[in-house]
Amino acid sequence: MATKLNLDKLDMQIISEMMEDAQISYADLGKKLFVSGGTIHVRIKKLQEHGIVKGTKLNVDLKALGYDITAFIGVYLEKSSLYDNVAKELQKVPEIVRLNYTTGNYSMFIEVVCKDINQLRYVLHDALQKIKGIERTETLISLEESFNRKVQVASNIS
Question: What residue ranges carry the coiled-coil annotation (predicted)?
């Protein structure tokens, strides 16, 4: 966006509160922050227009839905200039839930969620190995997610 949005204390409080509970009504959030629900609505709309708030997501227990495998895959590219093309192809693989362009040993780091080891094998053997530009991969299977927390945004703006 061309113009930079100056966030004030109320904006940061709204962001922080909604990161904790995105289902809170604007009226209830307004009461909590001592402003009207209409003010909350206007602020959220402004934050969305500037791309700071990108919608809300339902937090689902994937294991309860039968997704038993979470794996992290380090991707080595033949050349780093192939990143954009490879990223486009990786987006077509539905099991990939996160992709990061990284420094260090890997060019890319992927998070994959699968129902079982056979689905992971398919992703590794059939999906990834067919993408031009991927030299090799290294896979780490998560045995347990001990915690997953949201970033504590600074709300000490005056």
Answer: none
